[in-house]
Amino acid sequence: LSCFKTIMKKIFVIYGHYNNKSFTCAIKDTFIDEARKNDHEIDIVDLYKDKFNPVFAGELADEAIKNYQSRIDKADVIVFIYPIWWFRAPAIVEGFIDRVFTPPWAFKFKKVIGYYGYPVGKLKNKRAIIFNVYGSPRFATVLFFLNLPIRRFKRGFLKICGLNNILYKRFFSVPYVSEEKRKKFLEEVKKTAIKL
Question: pLDDT tens digits, residue range 130-141?
Answer without folding.
Answer: 999 998 887 666
